[in-house]
From TrEMBL:
<dbReference type="InterPro" id="IPR009880">
    <property type="entry name" value="Glyoxal_oxidase_N"/>
</dbReference>
<feature type="signal peptide">
    <location>
        <begin position="1"/>
        <end position="22"/>
    </location>
</feature>
<protein>
    <recommendedName>
        <fullName>Glyoxal oxidase N-terminal domain-containing protein</fullName>
    </recommendedName>
</protein>
<keyword id="KW-0732">Signal</keyword>
<dbReference type="Pfam" id="PF07250">
    <property type="entry name" value="Glyoxal_oxid_N"/>
</dbReference>
<dbReference type="InterPro" id="IPR037293">
    <property type="entry name" value="Gal_Oxidase_central_sf"/>
</dbReference>
<feature type="domain" description="Glyoxal oxidase N-terminal">
    <location>
        <begin position="61"/>
        <end position="166"/>
    </location>
</feature>
<dbReference type="InterPro" id="IPR011043">
    <property type="entry name" value="Gal_Oxase/kelch_b-propeller"/>
</dbReference>
Length: 166
């Protein structure tokens, strides 16, 4: 796999190293710091051809949103800009997978540390958009896990749904 220039531009907080590249593909990997993600990339998912979604725990990040620290962000891989996303619960130790329609599902998490709600039963949906008006959709009254889960795992199934287990 060859690394595209946009993908190479990543994050102060994410570390990309050489993972036995010679074994799989020719070419060089390099680590470039070119911008800042605003939140630590505890979890990172490429959610569209041009964007990555970053989730941290509720922590002392530099990015702010709505009068408090942000713990999630969308990184535009082309413009190298970030905008905060707004989960309402703590995503720390959650898991992620994709539905067959491209919507990313983040589930589980941790209790509140600084702000936000307990994320242990949370299910969060994020559908990337081009106009940057989309955000994480999270509503415990509409969808939540049946049990509290710290460090759950999830996997996409053949029918396009996601299995969350822990
Ligand atoms: C994908 O399916 C989920 C669950 O039904 C839904 O909430 C979401 O809006 C859908 N995404 C798209 C892009 O249609």
């Amino acid at each position: 796999m060859k690394v595209s220039p946009t993908f190479r531009s990543l994050l102060a907080s994410a570390v990309f190293g050489s993972i036995a590249t010679a074994q799989y593909a020719p070419g060089q990997w390099s680590l470039v710091q070119d911008g800042h993600s605003g939140v630590s990339a505890l979890e990172l998912a490429i959610v569209s051809e041009t964007t990555a979604m970053i989730l941290d725990k509720v922590e002392h990040n530099s990015l702010q949103t709505d009068g408090h620290i942000a713990w999630a962000a969308e990184l535009d891989l082309v413009t190298r800009t970030v905008r905060p996303l707004n989960p309402t619960s703590n995503t720390w130790c959650g898991t992620g997978s994709f539905l067959s329609n491209g919507t990313m599902v983040s589930s589980g998490g941790h209790r509140v540390v600084i702000t936000g709600r307990n994320g242990l039963a949370a299910i969060r949906l994020f559908t990337p958009c081009e106009d940057k008006n989309c955000d994480i959709i999270e509503d415990d009254d509409v969808r939540r896990m049946a049990s509290l889960r710290w460090y759950p795992s999830s996997v996409r199934l053949e029918d396009g749904s996601a299995l969350i287990f822990g």
